[in-house]
Amino acid sequence: MGARAPPVKGRGRAQFPCPDPGNSSVSFGLNVSHIWTAMTATVPPPPLLFDQQDTSDIPFVGALLDSMETAACLIDTDERIIGWNRCYEAFFPEHEGQLKRGWSYIDNMRNYFRANAEITDAKLFEETVEAGVVRHRNMRDPSLFQKRNGRWLNSRIYWFADGSCLKTWQDVTRQHNRTATDLFMEGTDRGVVLFDANGNFEKANRVMGDIFPRAVDLFHPGTTYLDHLRTYAETTLAPHEAETVARLINRPFPIRTPVARPLQLRRLDGGWLELRERVLFDGSLQTLWLDITTAKALEKSNADLDRLVHELREARQTAEAASAAKSAFLATMSHEIRTPMNGVLGMLGLLRTVPLPAEALDYAETAHQSATALLAIIDDVLDITKLEAGRITLEPLPFRPSELLRSIVALFAPRVAERGVTLRLQTDASLELVYQSDPTRLRQILVNLLGNAVKFTPSGEITICGYTEPAADPAATPDLVRLVLEVRDTGIGIPLEQQALIFDRFTQSDQSITRRFGGTGLGLAISRELAQLMGGYISLASAPGEGSTFTVSLPVPKIDAAALEALTNSRKPAPASALDRPLSILLAEDNEINQRVVIALLRKAGHQVYCVASGRDALEALPEHAFDLVLMDIHMPEMDGLQATRLIRASGKPWARIPIIALTADALDESRQTHLAAGMNDTLAKPIDRDKLLQTLQRWGGKPEAPAAQGADAKPEPARPRFDQARFAELVDTIGRDALPDLIDSVIAAVTERVTDIALHRHTADVRDLHAPAHQLISLFGNFALTRLHDLSRRLASACLAGNRLEVAQLIGELEAQTAADLPLLSEAAQAVTA
């Protein structure tokens, strides 16, 4: 032999020169692991079968293939035969001299059939060759066949990424002789029938009798495949399958092209059958039938389930869209209703403050009560909507239940006294302790229950009883108790069959109730859902003519001494110096009635008011006057309050930090968050309550955010301290010294992470994307006494919303430097407290 040339290495595959002089090269991508998979055993490599020219080109592959006890043939990407191993010649001696290396697969097939097949018809010859090539190209699964000499071979193709392949044949005669075939036929769940090359019946297994019970007379020699197909169609298959069966019958024997893929046929009884055909080496035919009724039913169930999931998804999206539309509608209606209600209540409130004849004063009082009742109904509708959407959040605060109950009794005492009904309050000493819950929502529940009791008790007495019970597992939760509050009355009572209905929305136990007593039927529904939201429940015991008892039971934790001290400090009155001068206030409001109401309230309190009708007018007025505060309506023509606020905050002018209070008739919680995100400092809901308005002015009128007085002699505004010691002391009192270190560590980590993230994204295409992390810093810095960082993060959030890239970049630099300087103050303060 001549010297063997090493293979030329390419990218991930070897390049082998082609032995055919007519071709310059053959590309063959070989995966050696696949070749080893094809082996059944290995022996020491014998001398190579390939001739000298071939073995000099592929020494390793030739030795590898010749070591296999499996016949193997290599075929390249252009379907040219590269070569075969020694075992191939042992399996297929009839191929000797018929197959040529370098020839295409189809040319080798023609060469073989010319020498071995007695086919005189040219068209049939080409069809036979083509069928063989198609079977080769489409072969993906192992194929079992028997040679004329009785040997059973299992053929398999390993396809490689470039389209080349390794074709193998394994001798499985021992496993698949006639006896083994019989065992296979009787051991499978498929019906199996064997026909010879002329379509004559040879044998069938027992399953065929189960699948085709009306065709069992055919399962004997003397019948043909065509007889079977006709009888199956007449006795078992659905009429509409006749055309498919006719196509099967019209094929010539021996069958060259069996059904390419499993054929599914419908039965008369609605079930399904699957037919597979296999043509064996000598043209004989093996048919396999399988009842797939269950599989088709499962397939249909899956399809139905997929369709149902799709419909449910669409229904959910529709419901979410409807819910969003309803929320938007309610927000709009809240605004539209509250805007005129603001005028009504405001004017009636002012009317009650001026001297009037007794009769006129009585009329004004009655009108004010009616307007207040109407506003309560609006609030109920909004509350039930927020409960539906899960938008109500609880605000746990320390409180004394005894004080809460006494304030509620004081509220209802005059009304009850007018009716001649006795109102009693019974509490034990445990209600004088301090607990934590949401006192606002608990008050709402009790006001609803007591209001119902007053409404439905024309005579007798109403009793509010309060006490505590141990929690379910006192050992596990020693600080947790159950707060039990009962509202008992001697009123008309509720029949047993109607008691389950009264907690439903817009439902009352008797349709005449609405006509006799009024109401929407929302109060009890809201009360029950609020109690459940707080982890408790409301129960009812009642009988007609004997009165009713509503019981509220809530889990509440007791509060320690530190929290009690915080509660005491929070009740101290605000210093009188918070507002020691009249304010100059800019009012931006487009509704004339609302203008008159707010102006009258402010001027009665001694403040100066300048009024404009749009956000644009507010922007023009700010440079002309030294205002202390802005009251900004949200919905205005030309420019709304949100847009005006963003422009004010982003202006960089001296008035950019002026306190801005939103005036809005939209009472939804999400709206408040939107207002704060735009840069507003606080919100006042319409109708404007005089006391809340004055409290808000007191809260913000003396704030350092307000611009310094303008003028030649104006003194510069004193700088805010970097760290608010008083605010930090309140924080310590609230959370306790023991929990302080872990909390401070968490805050420092969170602040550092957010500031770093903001700094990394300072060059983002849209700086509005930085608003969310900047807004999170506002509350973090504010709650933990870092005053200057709180102010700086608020300015940054406003600049982000306004899209002012230059200002955002400048403020981020300031934020990084100020955070590095001020954040250690928080650690130092915490260490001083816990030392």
Main features:
single chain, 835 residues, alpha+beta, Beta-Lactamase, Heat Shock Protein 90, 5 domains, five-stranded antiparallel sheet, elongated, disordered N terminus
Compile the SSE list and pairings:
Elements: E1 8-9, E2 14-16, E3 26-27, H1 32-38, H2 52-55, H3 59-66, E4 71-75, E5 81-84, H4 86-91, H5 105-116, H6 122-138, E6 143-146, E7 152-159, E8 165-171, H7 178-187, E9 191-195, E10 201-204, H8 206-211, H9 225-235, H10 242-249, E11 263-266, E12 272-279, E13 285-291, H11 293-351, H12 358-388, E14 397-399, H13 401-419, E15 422-427, E16 435-437, H14 439-455, E17 461-470, E18 480-489, H15 496-499, H16 511-517, H17 523-533, E19 537-543, E20 547-557, H18 561-570, E21 584-588, H19 592-604, E22 608-612, H20 615-621, E23 629-633, H21 641-650, E24 660-664, H22 669-677, E25 682-685, H23 690-701, H24 725-735, H25 740-760, H26 771-783, H27 787-802, H28 805-834
Parallel strand pairs: 15-17, 21-22, 21-23, 23-24, 24-25
Antiparallel strand pairs: 1-2, 2-3, 4-5, 4-8, 6-7, 7-8, 9-10, 9-13, 11-12, 12-13, 14-16, 17-18, 18-20, 19-20
